[in-house]
Each structure stands twice: as structure tokens, then as C-alpha cells.
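Morning!

This is the sequence you dropped in the shared folder:
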Amino acid sequence: MISILIQRKDIEKAYLLTEQTRLHLWALLSDPTRELIEEEGKEITKIADDIISVEDLKNGLKITVKDVLPRTAGLTTTSLRNHWLSIMRHAFSKKKRQFKKILCIINVVSPADYWDVDNRAYKIIIDSLRYNQLIPDDANRYLSFMVTNEIDFDDPRTEIYVLEHPENLLFYLTSLT
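The structure's back. C-alpha cells below.
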């Protein structure tokens, strides 16, 4: 039996190269939300509609992106921002809403069972709330956010809940008392 030793640094390098290639492919398309022209007489649906869904909730929106919010380490900020900002622009164009104050919950559903919470590209999602005019600014008086995670090997995705912020600023503690 032959044993192969794979080092963590090699896996991280492969991940980084994969993400860079994927983001480069999106950049070649120039905008993942653009509508493609007919191919061989068949109308092709928007790429974005295949990867983005938006649901109305009682107090906000749920955006599901069939893409795991990537790590920020080693990726160029420009390509990462262009990719995710175009996704969020497409999502918010489907449902126009404005909020006084938002609670944004970002649920990263990853096939990996271990990752550092502080190494994901959350800032782009937060910025998109302001850029898409859901709130006037991303200052703390307009926005709170939290990160949750799940593991799903078959359906990795990012779920973004944009909710009207509860009036009780410590709403999450009410179940503890």
C-alpha cells in the first residue's frame, strides 16, 4: 500500500488557485448577471437566475446564492468585489426594499467542516446593502450583522437574511431570561 502525504499548505494553495480561476472566469463574462444572447436558436436564461434566488420574508428578504462566500486571503479584492457586488445588485433588483435598520445574517453553508469565521468576505455583503440603497449608510445605527454556519456536502451556498432590525437591540438575549 502506497501512502501519500498531503500537506495543508498544498491544499490551501490549490483552494486559492481554484478561487482565482473561478473569479477570473466570472470577470471574462464581465458581469454574471448579464443576459446571454441566443445560442443555436435556444434562449439561454440569465446566469444569475441559476445561482441566485430571493424570497420575501415577513420582515425582510432571504437571498440564497449557490456559491460559498470565499476566504479573503490571497484573492484580489477587485475580482472578489466585482463578483459578489454584481450578485447582490441582481438580488436586490428583484425586490426593492428599504429599511430603517437592518439585521443582516450571513449563513455560510459550506462543505468544509472547519473554517475561521473571521476570514470570509463579509464586508462586500455589508457594503452591498448601502450600495443598493437598502440603508443610507453601513454605520452601526443602520446595521447589525451576524454570521452563522452549516455543513452541507451536497448543496453548498450562502444564505443572506436582510431583516428589519428588532426594536429590542438585545433581542437574542430574551430567550435566555
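Headline: The domain at 8-176 is CATH 3.30.1330.70 (60s Ribosomal Protein L30; Chain: A;).

More detail when I'm at my desk.
O.
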